[in-house]
Structures are given as structure tokens and as C-alpha cells.
Amino acid sequence: MSNTRAACVIGWPAKQSRSPKLHGYWIKRHGIDGDYRIEERSPEEFPAFVTNLAGNGYVGANITMPHKDAALALSEPDARARSVGAANTLWLDNGRLRSTNTDVEGFIGALDAAAPGWHERTESAVVLGAGGASRAVVYGFIERGVKTVHVVNRTFEKAVALRERFGPSVQPAHWSDLPRLLDGAKLLANATSLGMTGQGDLAIDLGAVADDCVVADAIYVPLKTPLLAAAEKRGLKTSNGLDMLLHQAVRGFELWFNVRPQVTRELYNLLATDITRT
Ligand code: NAP
């Protein structure tokens, strides 16, 4: 019988996923007898598949659209997954199907790499968007001690829902509040889909933000969104969605293969080449 440990990404669709390239790089680099595959499963197929992960040959999985809510409901979530309200990483722990949300450490890990010590000089942040990515970003900011997180969203009620979820540190806001909120801002995160190839533009004036403002974007297609291009032009530190994607993958790999891998420049370039080519 094979001793190969295998993990997978489960989504519908999933064949566009870059996770096999990413985890495959670490498997090879660490000489692990392991595999990482794509499993496309419909919402109807997902519950039976995921609750029999071991029977299907897997020690764990990444979960992508549209299964993150179902994965949370079908597993034992940790505090992060429960608070964020979505599970993107599953692992088997003595037969128990457990889950977490690694987008939190993905986003925060990318920021730490781009601007070490950012949280020591940042009392408040501006977050654009109030969907799944935003919930992970807001949770991560509050966990790191950011006192006030202004959540700006097109649908105001969703920003209000984040205050109900995370408490009074969250200040819901309208797009029309942005000029006021960006005046002197030290931390700005885009967690909307605006700026992504094929989506709408994110036109934001960074003229009034602080000179040491850090700007992060969850989007990785393109690698340099217009927001990040404007931030670089202004001389600000930035992190992009690929940095986030790579950092969020570390914990899953460690849980499945018992090795904590590094996010290296070589790995970044490998994925960046793939993204740019397609
Ligand atoms: P989501 O739950 O669907 O949320 C989308 C957000 O974008 C909502 O706040 C939505 O506002 C806003 N939005 C969409 N179109 C808009 C428009 N035309 N004008 C203003 N606001 C608009 O999506 P998500 O899962 O949070 O993902 C958001 C982005 O993060 C995506 O680009 C995704 O690829 C990226 N992401 C990256 C990573 C990574 O590892 N790098 C991980 C997760 C997500 P409304 O509430 O008003 O609709």
C-alpha cells in the first residue's frame, strides 16, 4: 500500500486553482512523499466527499468557492474559522474533521513581510469591502490590536453586519466617507473585487494618506492592481494578493505534511510567471 500523503483543493469549478503548483513546489523542495490534487465537486457532491476525506485518500484539503460555508458547517472549526464565518482549510485530527481560516494569517503574514512592525504604529485602518475576504482582514487587524477598523462598502448593511460580528472596533462607512477616512490614513486594504481583471475599476485618490501608509490588496490578477500602482508611485509600502495567497497556504501544508514551509522569492516568481502568462 502507498504511504503517499495527499491533500487537495475542492471547489466548483476548481481547475483554475494555482494551489497544486504552490504545494507541489514545497512537496518537491522538502522531498516529501506527498501529492496535492484538484477535486471538482458540485454543492450536491461536496458533503459526502468531504465527510469521507480519508476514504477518498486525503489527509486534508483547501476549500474554495462555493464550499467555504458548507465546510464550516460540516467540520469542527477553530476560533478563527468560526469568527470569520468560513473555512478554507481542513485537516484530519485523529479521525476528526477540523477546520480553520488561513486567509487571516495569509493577509497578515503578507503585511508583516512587506512592512514589519506595521501594527505598532497603526491605531486605525480603512478596509474596502465587507465580503469573505474582508471578514478575514478585519479579524486579523483586530487580533493584531488595531483599535478602529473603518469598513467601507457599497452595500452599507453588510458593513454594519461586520460590526455586529466583530464588535465596536468596526466602524461601518459609505464610499462617500472615503476622502475623510483616507486623510492621514496609515493602513488601507482593498478586499473588494474592484481592480481585478474583468471587474470594475477602483479609483482612489491616495494624495492625502500618511507618508508611511501601507496599502494592501487581496487581488492577485493582475499582480499590480491600479491601487497598488498608485501606492508605489506615492512611495508607499505595499503587499499584493499573491503574497496573501502564498502566506495563507503555509499553515495547511504544515498541518498535512508536518513541515512548516517558507514563502520564498523563487516561489513568488514561479506563481507570478504563471499568473502573468494566463
Ligand atoms: P465577496 O464575498 O463576493 O465580496 C465582494 C466585495 O466586493 C463586496 O464587499 C462587494 O460589495 C464588493 N464589490 C464587488 N463589486 C463591486 C462594485 N462594482 N462596486 C463596489 N463594491 C463592489 O468576495 P470575496 O471572497 O470577499 O473576495 C474579494 C476579493 O478578494 C476577490 O477579488 C478575491 O479574488 C480576493 N481574495 C483573494 C484572496 C487571496 O488569497 N489573495 C483570498 C480571498 C479573496 P457589496 O457587498 O456591495 O456587493
Walkthrough of the structure:
- The chain is an alpha/beta fold and 278 residues long.
- Helix content is 38%, strand content 20%.
- It is built from eleven helices and twelve strands.
- The protein has helices at residues 19-29, 46-50, 68-74, 79-84, 103-114, 132-143, 156-166, 178-182, 226-233, 241-257, 265-277, and strands at residues 5-11, 34-40, 60-63, 76-77, 89-93, 96-100, 124-128, 148-152, 170-173, 187-190, 214-217, 237-239.
- The strands form two sheets. It has a six-stranded mixed β-sheet, sandwiched between helices.
- Helix 7 (156-166) links the parallel strand 8 and strand 9 (170-173).
- Helix 5 (103-114) crosses helix 10.
- It is globular.
- The site of NADP nicotinamide-adenine-dinucleotide phosphate has 25 residues, from helix 5, helix 6 and helix 10.
- NADP nicotinamide-adenine-dinucleotide phosphate binds next to helix 5, helix 6 and helix 10.
Write the layout of secondary structure elements.
Layout: E1 5-11, H1 19-29, E2 34-40, H2 46-50, E3 60-63, H3 68-74, E4 76-77, H4 79-84, E5 89-93, E6 96-100, H5 103-114, E7 124-128, H6 132-143, E8 148-152, H7 156-166, E9 170-173, H8 178-182, E10 187-190, E11 214-217, H9 226-233, E12 237-239, H10 241-257, H11 265-277
The chain binds NADP nicotinamide-adenine-dinucleotide phosphate.
NADP nicotinamide-adenine-dinucleotide phosphate binds next to helix 5, helix 6 and helix 10.
